[in-house]
Design a protein that fits this description.
Radius of gyration: 26 Å
CATH architecture of the largest domain: Roll
Number of strands: 10
Shape: rod-shaped
Oligomer: single chain
CATH topology of the largest domain: Outer membrane lipoprotein wza fold like
Number of domains: 2
Largest sheet: 5 strands, mixed
CATH superfamily of the largest domain: Outer membrane lipoprotein wza domain like
Number of helices: 4
Strand content: 25-35%
Distance between the termini: 75 Å
Helix content: 25-40%
C-alpha cells in the first residue's frame, strides 16, 4: 500500500513539473487565462492626495470638482477626470514643469471614490436613496432586494426614470428581465401599487 502511494506521489510531481514551464510560458506570452484587472479612473467627486517629492508645501488633499478638475498649489486647476492615478500624476508633473519645477516627481492616491446613488420609491419594504456597490453595476432585481423586496400591495410593474428624463417600464415579476436590466446613476425606480 505504501509503494502505491509513493508511486502516485511521484507521478503527480512529474506531471506538475512538466506542466510548470508550459504555464510559465503561457503567462509570459500574455495568455488569455490571466484576467486583466481594469485600472480605476478618476471621476468628479473623488477625493485624492497629491504628493510632490521633496516639495511638502505642494502636497494637497483635494476633491475633484464636478468638471473633474483638481485645484493644486501654484498650478491651479488640472483636469484629471478619466485618468488612472499614474496618468494623473504625469499630468500634474507636466503642469509643474511649466515654469515651476525642473524634475517633479508626483504620486496620486485615491482616498475616496464618489459613490453614485439611485432612488427606490413606492411599494418596496424600505423606499429610500441607495448607493451603488463599489463595482458600480446593479441589476433591477438586486436593487429591489436592497430595499427589502416588494410589499404585498406591489404590482411588480416598475417604471424607471433616467437622469435625462426618459422612462422605461419593466415587469419585475419576469425574473430574467429584471436580472438583465441594469440601473444607472441618478435613476429613480417607482414600484407601482397593484390595482384592485
Amino acid at each position: 500500500m505504501t509503494d502505491v502511494r509513493r508511486w502516485i506521489l511521484a507521478v503527480g510531481l512529474a506531471v506538475a513539473e512538466a506542466a510548470a514551464p508550459a504555464g510559465a510560458q503561457e503567462s509570459a506570452d500574455g495568455g488569455s487565462r490571466t484576467p486583466q484587472v481594469q485600472e480605476y479612473r478618476l471621476n468628479p467627486g473623488d477625493a485624492i492626495v497629491v504628493q510632490v517629492f521633496e516639495e511638502a508645501d505642494l502636497d494637497a488633499k483635494v476633491r475633484l470638482s464636478e468638471n473633474g478638475r483638481a485645484n493644486l498649489p501654484l498650478i491651479g486647476d488640472v483636469t484629471l477626470s478619466g485618468l488612472a492615478a499614474k496618468e494623473a500624476a504625469a499630468a500634474i508633473e507636466a503642469a509643474y514643469r511649466k515654469g515651476y519645477l525642473v524634475k517633479p516627481a508626483v504620486t496620486v492616491t485615491v482616498t475616496e471614490k464618489k459613490r453614485e446613488r439611485f432612488n427606490l420609491m413606492g411599494q418596496v419594504a424600505k423606499p429610500n436613496a441607495y448607493y451603488f456597490p463599489e463595482s458600480g453595476s446593479l441589476t433591477l432585481l438586486d436593487a429591489i432586494g436592497l430595499a427589502g423586496g416588494f410589499t404585498r400591495m406591489a404590482s411588480q410593474k416598475v417604471e424607471v426614470t433616467r437622469a435625462n428624463g426618459s422612462k422605461v417600464k419593466i415587469d419585475a415579476s419576469n425574473r430574467t428581465e429584471a436580472l438583465k436590466f441594469r440601473l444607472l446613476p441618478g435613476d429613480t425606480v417607482d414600484c407601482r401599487e397593484r390595482g384592485f
